[in-house]
Amino acid sequence: AAAAAAATASTAAAHAHEEGDEGDDDDDPDQDSETFLQTAAQMESMKDMQRQQQVHMARLKAAGNMGYDGMGGMRNLTPEECGGSTDRYKWLQSETEITVEFPIPLGTKSKQIDVKFQTKSLKIAVNGASILQGELHRDIVPEDCMWEIEELVGRGGGSKEKQVVVTMTKFRPTMASHHWNCVVEGEPRVDMSRFGPPIMGINGNDPDAMERMLETMRP
Question: pTM surpassing 0.85?
């Protein structure tokens, strides 16, 4: 009788344990649904952030002259901050051009200005006085270069002064830290490392894309 009672108790305990396991396996459908919705919302939020980032980068690339903003992001650099100035001239640059500007007296004529472009050198003089002369930091395309006299207008509408604007086309485009750090060797240099390395995308369908990218990044 005692053995029978023990067996009955053991059987009852086993049934109770199985019922308990079955109860543990029953998930709350409302909780599962809420978890699914939260996960889906998080995934959609991440996708939306990725789309926004892609749009932002596309706009930056379209505007050109990209560089680091100093806070972990990217922005478009202005020609002014990619250049510099001396007591004789100031210079600016984009990805494809170098611009040199310097003031001249109001009465100065074009025949008094001497500008000579060569692939590796530049000469700029006014009335025989040198403004900028020597070996260029990098090569240019002489036939695509130009200069002009620009009249600056004062606030009252009167003529304030004149300046010469010299525009040179780079032989190879540059970006960010690979920008020119001076116009002519021996002139004051500008620190371009603060703009970080160039960020470029490559079109897999364009067989020449990689070659162009490498040319842009050459020193």
Answer: no
